[in-house]
Amino acid sequence: MLRASKLESATGVIESGVEETLSCALFPPEHWRRIRTNNGIERLSRQIKRRTHAAMMLAAGRCKYVAEGGWGPRRYLDTDLLNGWDNREVLKKQQG
After folding, report:
1. Are 29 and 48 part of one and the same domain?
2. What's the domain range around 6?
3. pLDDT (tens digit, 9 = 90+) per residue, 31-78?
């Protein structure tokens, strides 16, 4: 098809790389699923994807634990102390 499209240089590149590309087919089929790419960027991308997924699952599990009451009635920050906070600032400005 490439020759018909008059893309001779592309045809040459593809034909010269066919043997190298298909060399993994010479291995027994049992080994195919274990053959990895030697492309570092692809491997890195897979590692990032796997680790990001694991981190998200860990964070989601922790959020679920907290949401289901795993911490009980204890609070990290008592938000009642913040009630009227902006009113205090206005009063300080008016007095000062």
Report:
1. no
2. 1-35
3. 777 776 667 788 888 899 999 999 999 999 888 887 777 565 666 666
What's the total number of domains in the chain? 2
Whether residue 64 lies inside any domain: the answer is yes
Separation in Å, CA 42 to CA 2, 7, 49, 56: 28, 29, 11, 21
Give the integer Cα–Cα distance in Å for 87 and 83. 9
Question: What is the DSSP secondary-structure string of 20-58?
Answer: HHGGGGGS-HHHHTT-----HHHHHHHHHHHHHHHHHHH
Q: How many CB atoms lie within 10 A of CB 30?
A: 7
For residues 8 and 20, state if they share a domain: yes
Residue 24: partners with Cβ closer than 8 Å, 6 or more residues away: 32, 35
Whether 84 maps to a domain, the answer reads no
